[in-house]
Design a protein that fits this description.
The complex is a heterotrimer of chains A (84), B (421) and C (412). Chain A is mainly α and 84 residues long. Chain A is 61% helix and 0% strand. Chain A has a single domain, classed as Non-ribosomal Peptide Synthetase Peptidyl Carrier Protein, Chain A, CATH 1.10.1200.10. Classes of the chains: A mainly alpha (84), B alpha/beta (421), C alpha/beta (412).
Chain lengths: 84, 421, 412
C-alpha cells in the first residue's frame, strides 16, 4: 500500500463526513486543527475506519482521537503503512 | 389540587436473575452479572462482553402463540408487567379500562428480531433486494414497534392512553415521567409504565464498536463495567426490562396499597450539542436536576442518594459528576452516588426503568447499592460513589438521572410520600 | 383559577409526496396532484405491491449542510428540512428571540432511519463488522429526529420522541401542547417517516394492509366501496407550537390556529366484544377543547382505505356527529399513508383549510357506501365557513388519537 497523501485524506473526509461550508479544504490545511475544519471525533473515527479498511492497517483508537491535525493523522497512518 | 402519583408495584428482568428479588440480591451484595457474549459468536467484534438475561419465556407462563408473536423485548415487558401487577395487589378486573394506560420506553425496540428476519430475507446478507416471499408476518411489527406497548395494554386491558416513549438511553426514565404527567393531568388513573430493550445482537454490538462506546475489556467480563474508575474504557451492553404500577396517590392510599415512593419531580432537557458527545460542564443535566427538584419542591439537601447514569464511558462519568456539582452545590460531595451499571451493564432504553427499580428498593430496604469494580477513582470523579459494597442507610429521597444519544438529559426525584412539602 | 395556556401554531413545514413546502403541498391537495407513483427507489418488480407516495424533488444537499448528509437517513433529512421551514415561517430561525431552554422538540417516527440501517445491516453481513458506520449508533433509532432538530437549531427545552404508528404525529402534537402548557414557550413538533428501501417497503407490506392495485388512481380509496388497502408514503410535517401569549409578545408574524383539544385512547384487545376507542378519542378531544360536535366544521379522517377500518371510523363519526352530520375528508389519498407523518400533515392541512376556508377533497374516492352515513368531500374541494376542525389518526394495533384545531381568532 502506497503512502496516504493529503489529497487522499481530503477525499476520505468528504466521503465519510461531508465538508463544512465555511472551510476551504483545497487550501493548505496540513496543520489546521480538525476542529477548525469542522470535523468532530465521529467524523475522524468514520474516516479513520475507512482508511484502515482500504489500507489493511490498524491504528489505535486513542492515537486517532489524539491526532489533532491532518499532518498528525497522515503521520500516524503512514507510520502504520510502513510497518505493515 | 395537583394529583400526586405513586409507584405501587415493581417487576424486573435484568442480568443476574429473574424477578425483583434476585435483582435486589445482586445489587445489595455488590455482585456483577456481566459476562462473555453467549447469544452469538462475538469473536469478530471489538467488544465481546454483555449483560445477558437468562430468560425462559415458557417458565414465565407465556403461551407458545405469545412466544411466537412477541419479540424478546416485548416478552420481557409482559413478564415484568405481570410481576408488577401481582406486586401491587391491584385488581385489574375492578378498574375502568378507559382510565388505564401504558407508557413503554425502548431505545432500539425489536432490533434483535429485525436482524434475525433480515438474515432470512436477504440470504444471510448477500442480497440487497430482499425477497418478499420470505416475509415473516411479524416483520411489520419489527419495523414499526407500536405492538410493544400494545401487548402490555392487552395484558392488562388498558384502553386509555398507550404509547411508546423512545428517547434513546433516557427512555426508561422518560416513559415513567410521561406516565406521571398523564395521571397528573387526569388522562388516566393507573398506568403500567416502564421500559425494555434487548439489544445484544450483531448489528447493535457493531455500531457501538464503531463508535468505540463499549468496553474492549474482553479478558475480564465480570469486571468490565467500571463506572467512575480511572481504568474505565466504555460501557457494557446489556438487556433488561422493568415495569411499574403507577397510581394516583389518594386512590392508592384508599385501597391500602403498599407505596414504594411518590414520583415527586421529573424533567428533561436537551444539550443541543452533539448526537453522541457531551460537553464537560454538565449544564443541561444540571438544569434538568434543578427543574425536577423544583417540581418536587425539595432542596438539593433533601437528596439522600443519587442513582447515577454512570455508564462507564470516559466522557459520561465526568459530565455527570460536573452536573451533580453544578446542581447540588456542596451537597454533591456529601450525598452517596452509585451506578448499578457496574453490575448489570447498560440496557440502553430499559436501564432508566431498571434504575428506578433500584432506587425504589433502596428506599424500601434502607440500603444503597454500590458501584462495583470501583477500585481507583478517576481524579476528576471525586464524589462518594459507594465503592464495592452496599451501604445501610435510611433513604427518603432519591435522585435518578439519565443521559443519552441525541443529547437527552433527564432527572427524576422519587421520595416517600410523607417527605412532600 | 387561571385559564390554561392556549397553544397556537405559528409555523408550518411540510415535506410530502406531491408537494415540497407548505404552499406546494396545499396546492397539490387542492388541485388533486397525485403523489402516488410506481416505486422508483429500487426494482420492485418482484413485490406484490409496487406503488408508493414518494417525494420526488428533494435534493438533500440543497436543504442541508454537507456535514449532515453522511450521518442522516432520508427520513431525518426530511424532518430537518421541515423543521427549518417551520422555524423560518414562525420567525424563529437564526437570530430567534427565544432562549435555548424556551424551545423543546417533540417528534414521532414509526419506522426510524430504516433505509440507513438497511445499508448498515447489508455492510455488516456482506462485508463485516468493521464496515459498519459510526453513525449507525444514532441514525437508526426513533429519537434521532428530535435529537438532530434540537442540535441543528440549538433548542434545549423539554423534548421527547413518541412511537404509536400512524397515530404518532397527533400524539407528538398533543404532547407538545402539554409541554407548552407546563411552561415551555414553544415546541417544534410533528412527525416524519420514510421506509421505502427494499427491506423497509417489504416490511410495510408484511402488515397485510397494503393495496396490491397497480393503478395509482385506484390503489388507495379511503371510504370507497372498492377500498382494498392503502399505499405507503413518506414525509410528514413539522409545526411550531407556541404559547399564545408568548407569540403575541414577540410579535409572531402569523397564527395559523390553535391546538384546542387532544386525546388518545386504545382499542380493546383483539377478540374483545368491547367497542373501538375511536369515538371516545374524538369526544374526549372535543371536551378538552370545550367544544360540542356542532362546533366542528370539518373532520380530517384517518381513512384507512380498508372496508373493516373505514366502517369503524364511519360508525364513530356517525355516533359523534349524526348521519352526514359534518363534512369529512381524507386528503391523504394523494400522498399515501405517511405513518407518523400522516397525522402531522393532516393537522397542517386542517390549519390551511381554516386559513383559506376550503376543504380539500378525498381524491380518487368515488362511491361511498350509503350505510357509512358520511358526507365525504369528493370530486373537488368544497368552500365552506370553517372555524374548527377535528383530525383523527389510528395506529396499527389499536392507537386512536384526535386533535381539535380552531381558527386563530375563535377565542378573541
Amino acid at each position: 500500500m502506497a503512502q496516504l497523501t493529503l489529497d487522499d485524506l481530503r477525499r476520505v473526509l468528504i466521503a465519510c463526513a461531508g465538508e463544512n461550508d465555511d472551510v476551504d479544504l483545497s487550501g493548505d490545511i496540513l496543520d489546521v486543527p480538525f476542529e477548525e475544519l469542522g470535523y468532530d471525533s465521529l467524523a475522524l473515527m468514520e474516516s479513520a475506519a475507512a482508511i484502515e479498511r482500504e489500507a489493511g492497517i490498524s491504528v489505535s483508537d486513542d492515537a486517532v482521537s489524539d491526532a489533532g491535525t491532518p499532518r498528525a493523522l497522515l503521520d500516524l497512518i503512514n507510520g502504520a503503512v510502513r510497518a505493515a | 389540587m395537583t394529583r400526586r402519583v405513586v409507584i405501587t408495584g415493581i417487576g424486573v428482568r435484568a442480568p443476574g436473575g429473574s424477578g425483583t428479588k434476585e435483582f435486589w440480591s445482586l445489587l445489595s451484595e455488590g455482585r456483577t452479572a456481566t459476562r462473555e457474549i453467549s447469544f452469538f459468536d462475538a469473536s469478530p467484534f471489538r467488544s465481546r462482553v454483555a449483560g445477558e438475561v437468562d430468560f425462559d419465556p415458557r417458565a414465565e407462563g407465556l403461551t407458545p402463540r405469545q412466544i411466537r408473536r412477541m419479540d424478546r423485548a416485548t416478552q420481557f415487558a409482559v413478564a415484568c408487567t405481570r410481576e408488577a401487577l401481582a406486586d401491587s395487589g391491584l385488581d385489574t378486573a375492578g378498574l375502568d379500562p378507559h382510565r388505564v394506560g401504558v407508557t413503554l420506553g425502548s431505545a432500539v425496540a425489536s432490533a434483535t428480531s429485525l436482524e434475525n428476519e433480515y438474515l432470512v430475507m436477504s440470504d444471510s446478507g448477500r442480497d440487497w433486494l430482499v425477497d418478499p416471499a420470505h416475509l415473516s408476518p411479524y416483520m411489520f411489527d419489527y419495523l414499526s414497534p407500536g405492538v410493544m406497548p400494545a401487548e402490555v395494554a392487552w395484558e392488562i386491558g388498558a384502553e386509555g392512553p398507550v404509547a411508546m416513549v423512545s428517547d434513546g438511553c433516557t427512555s426508561g426514565l422518560d416513559a415513567v415521567g410521561h406516565a406521571v404527567t398523564l395521571i397528573r393531568e387526569g388522562s388516566a388513573d393507573v398506568i403500567l409504565a416502564g421500559a425494555t430493550d434487548t439489544p445484544i445482537s450483531p448489528i447493535v454490538v457493531a455500531c457501538f464498536d464503531a463508535i468505540k462506546a463499549t468496553t474492549s475489556r474482553n479478558d475480564d467480563p465480570a469486571h468490565a463495567s467500571r463506572p467512575f474508575d480511572g481504568s474505565r474504557n466504555g460501557f457494557v451492553l446489556a438487556e433488561g426490562s422493568a415495569m411499574f404500577v403507577l397510581e394516583e396517590y389518594e386512590a392508592a392510599k384508599a385501597r391500602g396499597a403498599h407505596i414504594y415512593a411518590e414520583v415527586g419531580g421529573y424533567a428533561t432537557r436537551c444539550n443541543a450539542y452533539h448526537m453522541t458527545g457531551l460537553k464537560k460542564d454538565g449544564r443541561e443535566m444540571a438544569e434538568a436536576i434543578r427543574a425536577a427538584l423544583g417540581e418536587a419542591r425539595l432542596d438539593a439537601t433533601a437528596v439522600d442518594y443519587i442513582n447515577a447514569h454512570g455508564s462507564g464511558t470516559k466522557q459520561n462519568d465526568r459530565h455527570e459528576t460536573a452536573a451533580f456539582k453544578r446542581s447540588l452545590g456542596q451537597h454533591a460531595y456529601n450525598v452517596p452516588v452509585s451506578s448499578i451499571k457496574s453490575m448489570v451493564g447498560h440496557s440502553l432504553g430499559a436501564i432508566g426503568s431498571v434504575e428506578i427499580a433500584a432506587s425504589l428498593l433502596a428506599i424500601e430496604h434502607g440500603v444503597i447499592p454500590p458501584t462495583a469494580n470501583l477500585h481507583t477513582p478517576d481524579p476528576e470523579c471525586d464524589l462518594d460513589y459507594v465503592p464495592l459494597t452496599a451501604r445501610e442507610q435510611r433513604v427518603d429521597t432519591v435522585l435518578t438521572v439519565g443521559s443519552g444519544f441525541g443529547g437527552f438529559q433527564t432527572a427524576m426525584v422519587l421520595h416517600r410520600p410523607e417527605v412532600a412539602a | 383559577m387561571s385559564t390554561p395556556t392556549r397553544t397556537v401554531v405559528t409555523g408550518i413545514g411540510v415535506v410530502a409526496p406531491g408537494g415540497l413546502g407548505r404552499e406546494e403541498y396545499w396546492k397539490a391537495l387542492l388541485t388533486g396532484r397525485n403523489g402516488i407513483t410506481g416505486i422508483t427507489r429500487f426494482d420492485a418488480s418482484r413485490y406484490p405491491s409496487r406503488l408508493a407516495g414518494q417525494i420526488q424533488d428533494f435534493e438533500a444537499k440543497e436543504h442541508l449542510p454537507s456535514r449532515l448528509l453522511p450521518q442522516t437517513d432520508v427520513s431525518t433529512r426530511y424532518a430537518l428540512a421541515a423543521a427549518d421551514r417551520a422555524l423560518a415561517d414562525a420567525g424563529l430561525g437564526p437570530g430567534s428571540p427565544l432562549a435555548d431552554y424556551d424551545v423543546g422538540v417533540v417528534t414521532s417516527t414509526a419506522q426510524g432511519g430504516f433505509d440507513f440501517t438497511h445499508r448498515e445491516f447489508h455492510k455488516l453481513w456482506s462485508k463485516g463488522p468493521e464496515f459498519v458506520s459510526v453513525y449507525e449508533s444514532f441514525a437508526w433509532f426513533y429519537a434521532v429526529n428530535t435529537g438532530q432538530i434540537s442540535i441543528r437549531n440549538g433548542l434545549r427545552g423539554p423534548s421527547a420522541a413518541l412511537v404509536t404508528e400512524q397515530a404518532g404525529g397527533l400524539d407528538a402534537i398533543g404532547h407538545a401542547r402539554r409541554t407548552v402548557r407546563a411552561g415551555t414557550r414553544a415546541v417544534l413538533t410533528g412527525g416524519v417517516d420514510s421506509a421505502l428501501d427494499p427491506w423497509g417497503f417489504a416490511s410495510q407490506l408484511a402488515g397485510g394492509l397494503v393495496s396490491t392495485s397497480t393503478d395509482p388512481e385506484r390503489a388507495y380509496l379511503p371510504f370507497d366501496a372498492d377500498a382494498r388497502g392503502h399505499v405507503p408514503g413518506e414525509g410528514g410535517a413539522i409545526l411550531v407550537t407556541e404559547d399564545a401569549d408568548s407569540a403575541r409578545e414577540r410579535g409572531a408574524e402569523r397564527v395559523y390556529g390553535e391546538i384546542a383539544g387532544y386525546a388518545a385512547t386504545f382499542d380493546p384487545a383483539p377478540g374483545s366484544d368491547r367497542p373501538s376507542g375511536l369515538r371516545r378519542a374524538a369526544e374526549l378531544a372535543l371536551a378538552d377543547a370545550g367544544l360540542a360536535p356542532g362546533d366542528i366544521d370539518v373532520v380530517l379522517a384517518d381513512g384507512a382505505g380498508r372496508p373493516d377500518a373505514d366502517r369503524v371510523e364511519a360508525e364513530a363519526l356517525r355516533a359523534v356527529f349524526g348521519p352526514r352530520g359534518v363534512p369529512v375528508t381524507a386528503p391523504k389519498a394523494l400522498t399515501g399513508r405517511l405513518a407518523a407523518g400522516g397525522g402531522a400533515a393532516d393537522v397542517a392541512t386542517a390549519l390551511l383549510a381554516l386559513r383559506d376556508q376550503v376543504i380539500p377533497h378525498t381524491a380518487h374516492t368515488g362511491s361511498v357506501p350509503e350505510e357509512y352515513g358520511l358526507d365525504l368531500v369528493v370530486g373537488q374541494p368544497r368552500e365552506a365557513a370553517l372555524r374548527s376542525a377535528l383530525v383523527l389518526a389510528r395506529g396499527r394495533h389499536g392507537f386512536n388519537s384526535a386533535v381539535v384545531v380552531t381558527a386563530a381568532d375563535t377565542h378573541n
